[in-house]
Protein backbone atom coordinates (compact mmCIF):
# COMPACT_ATOMS: atom_id res chain seq x y z
CA UNK A 1 0.00 0.00 0.00
CA UNK A 2 1.05 3.58 -0.62
CA UNK A 3 0.84 4.66 3.00
CA UNK A 4 3.35 1.94 3.93
CA UNK A 5 6.05 3.44 1.70
CA UNK A 6 8.85 5.50 3.20
CA UNK A 7 9.42 9.15 2.34
CA UNK A 8 12.18 8.21 -0.12
CA UNK A 9 9.91 5.69 -1.85
CA UNK A 10 6.71 7.73 -2.06
CA UNK A 11 8.23 11.03 -3.19
CA UNK A 12 9.14 9.91 -6.77
CA UNK A 13 5.70 8.37 -7.50
CA UNK A 14 3.60 11.41 -6.51
CA UNK A 15 3.26 14.50 -8.74
CA UNK A 16 1.44 17.72 -7.84
CA UNK A 17 -0.47 19.69 -10.49
CA UNK A 18 -1.49 23.33 -10.13
CA UNK A 19 -4.26 24.76 -12.33
CA UNK A 20 -4.16 28.30 -13.66
CA UNK A 21 -5.08 30.64 -16.48
CA UNK A 22 -1.68 31.91 -17.65
CA UNK A 23 -0.25 28.39 -17.34
CA UNK A 24 -3.10 25.90 -17.54
CA UNK A 25 -1.29 23.12 -15.67
CA UNK A 26 2.09 23.23 -13.86
CA UNK A 27 3.56 20.14 -12.23
CA UNK A 28 5.99 19.68 -9.35
CA UNK A 29 8.69 18.59 -11.84
CA UNK A 30 8.72 22.09 -13.33
CA UNK A 31 6.92 21.16 -16.57
CA UNK A 32 4.14 23.30 -18.02
CA UNK A 33 1.11 21.98 -19.94
CA UNK A 34 -0.57 24.75 -21.91
CA UNK A 35 -2.40 25.57 -25.11
CA UNK A 36 -0.20 25.34 -28.21
CA UNK A 37 0.71 28.69 -29.87
CA UNK A 38 -0.94 27.66 -33.14
CA UNK A 39 -4.17 26.74 -31.34
CA UNK A 40 -4.09 30.02 -29.42
CA UNK A 41 -3.64 31.90 -32.70
CA UNK A 42 -6.52 29.98 -34.27
CA UNK A 43 -8.84 30.89 -31.37
CA UNK A 44 -7.82 34.55 -31.66
CA UNK A 45 -8.58 34.57 -35.39
CA UNK A 46 -11.97 32.93 -34.86
CA UNK A 47 -12.84 35.49 -32.20
CA UNK A 48 -11.87 38.35 -34.51
CA UNK A 49 -14.00 36.93 -37.31
CA UNK A 50 -16.97 36.53 -34.97
CA UNK A 51 -16.69 40.17 -33.88
CA UNK A 52 -16.40 41.30 -37.49
CA UNK A 53 -19.57 39.40 -38.50
CA UNK A 54 -21.42 40.73 -35.44
CA UNK A 55 -20.62 44.31 -36.43
CA UNK A 56 -21.67 43.61 -40.00
CA UNK A 57 -24.96 42.15 -38.79
CA UNK A 58 -25.57 45.14 -36.50
CA UNK A 59 -25.09 47.61 -39.37
CA UNK A 60 -27.34 45.60 -41.69
CA UNK A 61 -30.01 45.20 -39.00
CA UNK A 62 -30.11 48.95 -38.24
CA UNK A 63 -30.36 49.76 -41.94
CA UNK A 64 -33.30 47.35 -42.40
CA UNK A 65 -34.99 48.73 -39.29
CA UNK A 66 -34.84 52.26 -40.70
CA UNK A 67 -36.06 51.09 -44.11
CA UNK A 68 -39.08 49.13 -42.82
CA UNK A 69 -39.87 51.27 -39.78
CA UNK A 70 -40.02 48.17 -37.58
CA UNK A 71 -37.57 46.87 -34.96
CA UNK A 72 -36.97 43.77 -32.92
CA UNK A 73 -39.47 40.94 -33.16
CA UNK A 74 -41.90 43.06 -35.16
CA UNK A 75 -39.70 42.70 -38.25
CA UNK A 76 -38.88 39.44 -40.00
CA UNK A 77 -35.16 38.87 -40.51
CA UNK A 78 -33.97 39.07 -44.12
CA UNK A 79 -32.08 36.27 -45.84
CA UNK A 80 -28.78 38.16 -45.53
CA UNK A 81 -29.35 38.65 -41.81
CA UNK A 82 -30.14 34.96 -41.28
CA UNK A 83 -26.95 33.96 -43.11
CA UNK A 84 -24.87 36.26 -40.88
CA UNK A 85 -26.54 34.91 -37.73
CA UNK A 86 -25.76 31.35 -38.83
CA UNK A 87 -22.10 32.26 -39.37
CA UNK A 88 -21.89 33.94 -35.95
CA UNK A 89 -23.43 30.89 -34.25
CA UNK A 90 -20.80 28.53 -35.70
CA UNK A 91 -17.74 30.29 -34.23
CA UNK A 92 -18.30 29.42 -30.52
CA UNK A 93 -18.60 25.76 -31.50
CA UNK A 94 -15.33 25.93 -33.45
CA UNK A 95 -13.55 27.49 -30.46
CA UNK A 96 -15.02 24.84 -28.14
CA UNK A 97 -13.75 22.07 -30.41
CA UNK A 98 -10.20 23.48 -30.33
CA UNK A 99 -10.32 23.80 -26.54
CA UNK A 100 -11.70 20.28 -26.08
CA UNK A 101 -9.03 18.82 -28.36
CA UNK A 102 -6.41 20.70 -26.34
CA UNK A 103 -7.87 19.31 -23.09
CA UNK A 104 -7.62 15.75 -24.43
CA UNK A 105 -3.98 16.21 -25.44
CA UNK A 106 -3.02 17.83 -22.12
CA UNK A 107 -4.81 15.20 -20.02
CA UNK A 108 -3.13 12.40 -21.99
CA UNK A 109 0.30 14.02 -21.47
CA UNK A 110 -0.40 14.47 -17.74
CA UNK A 111 -1.51 10.84 -17.36
CA UNK A 112 1.63 9.60 -19.14
CA UNK A 113 3.80 11.96 -17.05
CA UNK A 114 2.42 10.65 -13.74
CA UNK A 115 4.33 7.67 -12.24
CA UNK A 116 1.53 6.53 -9.92
CA UNK A 117 -0.35 9.35 -8.10
CA UNK A 118 -1.53 12.70 -9.50
CA UNK A 119 -2.50 15.35 -6.94
CA UNK A 120 -4.83 18.14 -8.09
CA UNK A 121 -6.30 21.06 -6.18
CA UNK A 122 -10.01 20.73 -5.43
CA UNK A 123 -10.96 24.19 -6.66
CA UNK A 124 -14.66 25.08 -7.02
CA UNK A 125 -14.80 26.64 -10.49
CA UNK A 126 -18.49 27.57 -10.19
CA UNK A 127 -17.67 29.76 -7.21
CA UNK A 128 -14.68 31.33 -8.95
CA UNK A 129 -16.74 32.63 -11.88
CA UNK A 130 -19.62 34.14 -9.91
CA UNK A 131 -20.60 37.70 -10.68
CA UNK A 132 -19.81 40.25 -7.95
CA UNK A 133 -22.77 41.46 -5.92
CA UNK A 134 -24.15 44.92 -6.56
CA UNK A 135 -23.18 47.47 -3.93
CA UNK A 136 -25.36 50.41 -2.93
CA UNK A 137 -24.25 53.37 -0.85
CA UNK A 138 -26.40 53.38 2.31
CA UNK A 139 -26.16 57.18 2.63
CA UNK A 140 -26.80 58.37 -0.92
CA UNK A 141 -28.64 55.32 -2.29
CA UNK A 142 -26.48 55.36 -5.41
CA UNK A 143 -24.94 52.21 -6.87
CA UNK A 144 -21.17 51.98 -6.42
CA UNK A 145 -18.57 50.39 -8.64
CA UNK A 146 -18.12 46.69 -7.82
CA UNK A 147 -15.56 45.71 -10.48
CA UNK A 148 -18.13 43.73 -12.49
CA UNK A 149 -16.54 44.56 -15.85
CA UNK A 150 -13.06 43.54 -14.70
CA UNK A 151 -14.44 40.36 -13.07
CA UNK A 152 -16.27 39.54 -16.31
CA UNK A 153 -12.95 39.50 -18.18
CA UNK A 154 -11.38 37.27 -15.52
CA UNK A 155 -14.35 34.87 -15.65
CA UNK A 156 -14.00 34.62 -19.43
CA UNK A 157 -10.30 33.77 -19.07
CA UNK A 158 -11.02 31.12 -16.42
CA UNK A 159 -13.74 29.47 -18.49
CA UNK A 160 -11.58 29.64 -21.61
CA UNK A 161 -8.79 27.71 -19.86
CA UNK A 162 -11.10 24.66 -19.48
CA UNK A 163 -9.63 23.79 -16.08
CA UNK A 164 -12.54 21.61 -15.01
CA UNK A 165 -12.54 19.69 -18.28
CA UNK A 166 -8.79 19.04 -18.08
CA UNK A 167 -9.14 17.74 -14.53
CA UNK A 168 -12.10 15.52 -15.45
CA UNK A 169 -10.41 14.02 -18.52
CA UNK A 170 -7.19 13.43 -16.59
CA UNK A 171 -9.06 11.49 -13.90
CA UNK A 172 -10.45 8.84 -16.24
CA UNK A 173 -7.22 8.57 -18.26
CA UNK A 174 -5.29 7.93 -15.06
CA UNK A 175 -7.80 5.22 -14.15
CA UNK A 176 -7.25 3.58 -17.55
CA UNK A 177 -3.54 3.31 -16.70
CA UNK A 178 -4.28 2.00 -13.16
CA UNK A 179 -2.99 5.22 -11.60
CA UNK A 180 -4.47 7.20 -8.74
CA UNK A 181 -6.19 10.60 -8.93
CA UNK A 182 -6.24 12.61 -5.67
CA UNK A 183 -7.79 15.99 -4.89
CA UNK A 184 -6.62 18.12 -1.95
CA UNK A 185 -7.68 21.43 -0.40
CA UNK A 186 -6.44 24.40 -2.45
CA UNK A 187 -6.57 27.00 0.33
CA UNK A 188 -3.52 29.32 0.44
CA UNK A 189 -1.50 27.00 -1.81
CA UNK A 190 -0.35 30.02 -3.82
CA UNK A 191 0.82 31.83 -0.65
CA UNK A 192 2.55 28.91 1.10
CA UNK A 193 6.26 28.29 0.66
CA UNK A 194 7.09 24.81 -0.62
CA UNK A 195 10.43 24.83 1.25
CA UNK A 196 9.67 26.09 4.77
CA UNK A 197 5.86 26.11 4.83
CA UNK A 198 5.58 29.81 5.75
CA UNK A 199 2.25 31.22 4.53
CA UNK A 200 1.67 34.91 3.91
CA UNK A 201 -0.02 37.00 1.24
CA UNK A 202 3.21 38.96 0.83
CA UNK A 203 4.97 35.89 -0.55
CA UNK A 204 3.05 36.29 -3.83
CA UNK A 205 4.56 39.53 -5.06
CA UNK A 206 3.13 39.17 -8.59
CA UNK A 207 1.00 36.78 -10.62
CA UNK A 208 3.97 34.68 -11.74
CA UNK A 209 6.50 35.48 -8.99
CA UNK A 210 6.82 33.87 -5.57
CA UNK A 211 9.33 35.02 -2.96
CA UNK A 212 9.17 33.68 0.60
CA UNK A 213 9.50 36.37 3.27
CA UNK A 214 10.85 33.82 5.78
CA UNK A 215 13.48 31.74 3.99
CA UNK A 216 13.96 33.77 0.78
CA UNK A 217 12.94 30.93 -1.56
CA UNK A 218 12.13 32.34 -5.02
CA UNK A 219 10.58 30.64 -8.08
CA UNK A 220 7.55 30.72 -10.34
CA UNK A 221 4.36 30.96 -8.29
CA UNK A 222 2.59 28.11 -10.13
CA UNK A 223 5.58 25.79 -9.79
CA UNK A 224 5.76 26.53 -6.06
CA UNK A 225 2.02 25.86 -5.66
CA UNK A 226 2.33 22.49 -7.42
CA UNK A 227 5.00 21.40 -4.92
CA UNK A 228 2.77 22.53 -2.05
CA UNK A 229 -0.05 20.42 -3.48
CA UNK A 230 2.29 17.45 -3.74
CA UNK A 231 3.13 17.72 -0.03
CA UNK A 232 -0.55 17.93 0.83
CA UNK A 233 -1.23 14.88 -1.34
CA UNK A 234 1.43 12.84 0.44
CA UNK A 235 0.04 13.95 3.83
CA UNK A 236 -3.45 12.88 2.70
CA UNK A 237 -2.17 9.47 1.55
CA UNK A 238 -0.66 8.91 5.01
CA UNK A 239 -3.88 9.97 6.79
CA UNK A 240 -6.72 7.78 8.06
CA UNK A 241 -9.12 9.40 5.59
CA UNK A 242 -7.21 7.86 2.70
CA UNK A 243 -7.36 4.38 4.27
CA UNK A 244 -11.15 4.63 4.62
CA UNK A 245 -11.77 5.76 1.04
CA UNK A 246 -13.26 3.37 -1.48
CA UNK A 247 -10.81 1.81 -3.92
CA UNK A 248 -11.61 2.65 -7.53
CA UNK A 249 -12.07 -0.52 -9.52
CA UNK A 250 -12.29 -0.83 -13.27
CA UNK A 251 -14.49 -3.66 -14.55
CA UNK A 252 -14.31 -4.76 -18.19
CA UNK A 253 -16.93 -7.25 -19.45
CA UNK A 254 -16.34 -9.56 -22.38
CA UNK A 255 -18.16 -12.53 -23.89
CA UNK A 256 -16.23 -15.80 -24.18
CA UNK A 257 -17.28 -19.05 -25.83
CA UNK A 258 -16.37 -21.95 -23.49
CA UNK A 259 -16.99 -25.24 -25.30
CA UNK A 260 -16.43 -27.38 -22.23
CA UNK A 261 -19.13 -25.62 -20.18
CA UNK A 262 -21.72 -24.45 -22.70
CA UNK A 263 -25.42 -24.78 -22.08
CA UNK A 264 -28.18 -24.94 -24.65
CA UNK A 265 -30.81 -22.26 -24.35
CA UNK A 266 -34.16 -21.87 -26.03
CA UNK A 267 -34.10 -22.93 -29.66
CA UNK A 268 -30.98 -25.04 -29.21
CA UNK A 269 -28.65 -21.99 -29.25
CA UNK A 270 -25.44 -21.87 -27.26
CA UNK A 271 -25.42 -19.35 -24.38
CA UNK A 272 -22.06 -17.60 -24.06
CA UNK A 273 -20.37 -17.35 -20.68
CA UNK A 274 -19.73 -13.84 -19.35
CA UNK A 275 -16.41 -13.20 -17.64
CA UNK A 276 -15.42 -10.01 -15.83
CA UNK A 277 -11.84 -8.93 -15.23
CA UNK A 278 -11.57 -6.68 -12.19
CA UNK A 279 -8.48 -4.49 -12.03
CA UNK A 280 -7.57 -2.85 -8.73
CA UNK A 281 -6.43 0.64 -9.68
CA UNK A 282 -4.48 1.06 -6.46
CA UNK A 283 -2.80 -2.30 -5.88
CA UNK A 284 -2.52 -3.44 -9.49
CA UNK A 285 -4.18 -6.78 -8.69
CA UNK A 286 -6.69 -8.52 -10.95
CA UNK A 287 -9.16 -11.36 -10.62
CA UNK A 288 -11.36 -13.24 -13.07
CA UNK A 289 -15.00 -13.86 -12.24
CA UNK A 290 -17.24 -15.97 -14.49
CA UNK A 291 -21.00 -16.32 -14.61
Description:
This protein has 291 residues and is of the alpha+beta class. Helix content is 42%, strand content 19%. The chain is built from 8 helices and 14 strands. Strand 11 (263-264) and strand 12 (270-271) form a beta hairpin. The chain is elongated, with a radius of gyration of 27 Å. Residues 255-291 have low confidence and may be disordered. It has a 5-stranded mixed beta sheet. A 3-stranded antiparallel beta sheet has the order 10-13-14, with no helix packed on it.
Percent helix range: 40-55%
Instruction: Quote the average pLDDT.
Output: 83
| Coarse shape | elongated
Number of strand segments: 14
The radius of gyration computed from the alpha-carbon positions, rounded to a whole number of angstroms, is 27 Å
Order of helices and strands: HEEEHHEHEEHHEEEHHEEEEE
Enumerate the spans where pLDDT stays under 50 for 5 or more consecutive residues.
Answer: 255-291
Number of helices: 8
Bin the strand percentage.
Answer: 15-25%
Distance between the termini: 30 Å
Features:
19% strand; three-stranded antiparallel sheet; 14 strands; 291 residues; five-stranded mixed sheet; single chain; 8 helices; elongated
Summarize this, please?
This protein has 291 residues and is an alpha+beta fold. It is built from 8 helices and 14 strands.
SSE layout and pairings?
Elements: H1 7-10, E1 14-19, E2 25-27, E3 32-33, H2 37-68, H3 79-113, E4 117-121, H4 125-128, E5 135-136, E6 143-144, H5 148-160, H6 163-176, E7 180-184, E8 209-211, E9 218-220, H7 221-237, H8 240-243, E10 249-256, E11 263-264, E12 270-271, E13 273-280, E14 286-290
Parallel strand pairs: 1-4, 4-7
Antiparallel strand pairs: 1-2, 2-3, 5-6, 8-9, 10-13, 11-12, 13-14
Helix pairs in contact: 2-3, 3-6
